[in-house]
Amino acid sequence: MTTTKKVPLEACTFLLTEAGQDAEVLLAAATAESGGESRFEIAALSGKVIENHWWWGNLAIELSGIKGKGKVPVLVDHNVGLRIGVSDDREIDAKRGLVMRGKFLKSSPLAAQVRDESKDGFPWEASVRVVPLKVEQIPEGVEAEVNGQKVRGPGHIFRRSQLREVSFTALGADHNTSAAALSEASPELAVEFSTLATNEDTMTKKIEGAQVPEPQAPNEVQLAEQHKQAGIKAERDRVAAIRSAGTPEQAALVDELIVGGAEISAAQARLSEDLRTRFRVMMNQFANREGSLSGGNRGEQVDTKLAQINALEEGRDKWAAQWDHDASLRAQFLRKDDFLALRDVELAGWNPSRIRRRDDKGQPLAVRPWDEVALAASSPSSPVTIAGVRAGYAASLQAMLGLSWARQIASAFPTSSPSETYPWLRAVPNPRKWEGERTTQELRSDVVTIVNDDYENSIEFKVPDLRRDKTGQIMARAADLATRVAFFPEHLITALLTANGNAYDNVAFFATTHAVGSSGTINNNILAADGLAGGTAPSTAQMSTNLLLILGKMLAFLDDQAQPVNEAARQLMVMVPANLYGATVAAINAMFTSASATNPLGELARYGFSFTPVLNARLTTQNQFYVFRADAGIRSLLLQEEGVNPVELGPDSEHAKKTNRVLFGHGWAGGVGYGRFEMAIRGTTS
């Protein structure tokens, strides 16, 4: 019986030492007879049995069944972008097996580097990629002969195969690498399988047509043996399923679950939760660290925790050797540790955009905070996985939360209840003369209650699209999903500002008639009649004058104790619609407002004042802008949120089995409300 199965491409790559042979690459000096070409020779496959391969079990490759083009590519680390030579001659040697000979490319600097380093004694190894065309499966306990040697099942035989390429490697990959981990991210091949006949099958054919006695009911001994064998098979299946569900970092947990007798479904759930926990820890470490990703003094110390979680030490050794022997990497990265840090975070499915790289003049590139994490929209080099989508979403969410302006003008609070109440929005009392015992002064209560609402957002795509997406479209949509939820409070706050509902004193938030206790009249709704000018197209000088007027008004506000409420204000945010953004930026940053006039806002920087312009494209009124104090304890607006809760129904979910679709989304619960109107002013320029 012949069937077609999917095989990961990585399962077709073989380090020569896996077959127990000498993997040393032999070089031949350039001679006149060879046309001055530098040539090499590799004993590519000995024909010996590769035992305990992570995918194939015991594997034998029939040498006479290997086919290939007349010229076979020679690469470095199986990377098609790193071409160094061509194998133009091969033969089946009775003692050495498949022998490949070829020449280095004269036009490739990398080829010259590999050749020269080999002459200097660097122990390059070789690896071949052999794609099976016809595979014979060997059941357990059955033997077959290939290349004059016995191979015993369980295992496989490549009866017909194609030689695709041979590669030079600095350090060979571990052939026991987890099949689950590799198959999740590797391209797949459709391969034809047939099963070798067992002794029982042969016996069945011999007695076909013969008189068969009536079957007899098994006796107690036979029944006991059958139950025993069924139990052994079930236990083997359980162990195999649990091992395939775990990753190399979870080896201890896998052993614990196996020894503890955990059922397959329970073990898979435990392993999935452990992976999520590891991922959260990794993301927290990345978000909190000030290591090599963000520059600064502490950036000189490389944090290797991500590597400990996500990478085997052998992997880091290989990358270190790659950096040592690749001049292009040394030219691009300032330090080896920076290159290793890049590879570490790549394992999570996302990439830093710039980590200590040099420009074309050899100078270090500047790194802005929002450039530290490139969004998941960057094109992946391998098929997308649900784990990669999850990691890219988390990385994008971290980056976008850092750009959110809502949390700069609103006091943000966590919430876990249907609603939250904020009872003390008035000022703290002024100190009084101490006479006798202390006299407590009760905080005046103005209650504001904000009700939480639940929101969700989800995207869905076909399961096959995960492996077919080579352009990063799914990762880009996951990044967009993260952007939407990160900036969702901005959407709610803009609606709140536009509605201009009542503040805690039961007067419209932006009004000319606020009065609390002994504050006198507070006007935080400044109009053209108050001195604002410019309409929908103010000049730099007009916008500078407008902001200076707004600042003076805000600093003059008194609290309910008749004390200056914004006396310590130094950081302000100016929110404008698109049409006012250019004039606002110029007013904040220009040294002069005209040929003969110095910008007064620039002088304020000497006293510690700073203005941050924010373009809010959601604003539709073109002659209004807002100024918020951004450094107060309780600010002008209140934001409460439970946080973002990602939800996924992956390829193994019941949803995917029924619909052939993967669902990825999130939930957000929270609300916004008015805080202290004394910390905000709305300006209308006409």
Describe the fold and architecture.
There is one protein chain. By secondary structure, this protein is α+β, with helices and mostly antiparallel strands. 31% of the residues lie in helices and 27% in strands. Strands 1, 2, 3, 4, 5, 6, 7, 8, 9, 10, 11, 14 and 15 form a 13-stranded mixed sheet that branches. Strand 5 and strand 6 (57-61) form a beta hairpin. Helix 11 (386-401) runs parallel beside helix 14 (473-486) and helix 16 packs across helix 17 (578-589). The chain starts with a strand and ends with a strand. 31% of the residues are buried.
Radius of gyration: 35 Å
Largest sheet geometry? 13 strands, mixed
Give the strand tally: 28
Strand content: 25-35%
Alpha-beta classification: alpha+beta
Number of helical runs?
A: 19
Question: Which terms summarize this structure?
Answer:
single chain; 686 residues; five-stranded mixed β-sheet; alpha+beta
Give a summary of the structure in a few sentences.
The chain is of the alpha+beta class and 686 residues long. The protein is 31% helix and 27% strand.
Q: Helices, strands, pairings?
A:
Layout: E1 2-8, E2 13-15, E3 26-28, E4 39-45, E5 50-53, E6 57-61, E7 66-67, E8 72-76, E9 79-93, E10 97-104, H1 109-119, E11 125-138, E12 143-146, E13 149-152, E14 155-169, H2 179-185, E15 188-195, H3 199-206, H4 220-245, H5 251-259, H6 264-288, H7 305-310, H8 313-325, H9 327-332, H10 336-346, H11 386-401, H12 406-409, E16 410-414, E17 419-422, E18 448-451, E19 453-462, H13 463-468, H14 473-486, H15 488-499, E20 525-526, H16 540-555, E21 571-576, H17 578-589, E22 592-594, E23 597-598, H18 600-604, E24 610-615, E25 624-629, E26 637-649, H19 654-659, E27 661-674, E28 680-684
Parallel strand pairs: 6-14, 7-14, 8-14, 11-15, 16-26, 20-28, 21-24
Antiparallel strand pairs: 1-15, 2-11, 3-4, 4-10, 5-6, 8-9, 9-10, 11-14, 12-13, 17-18, 19-27, 21-25, 22-23, 25-28, 26-27
Helix pairs in contact: 4-5, 4-6, 8-10, 11-14, 16-17
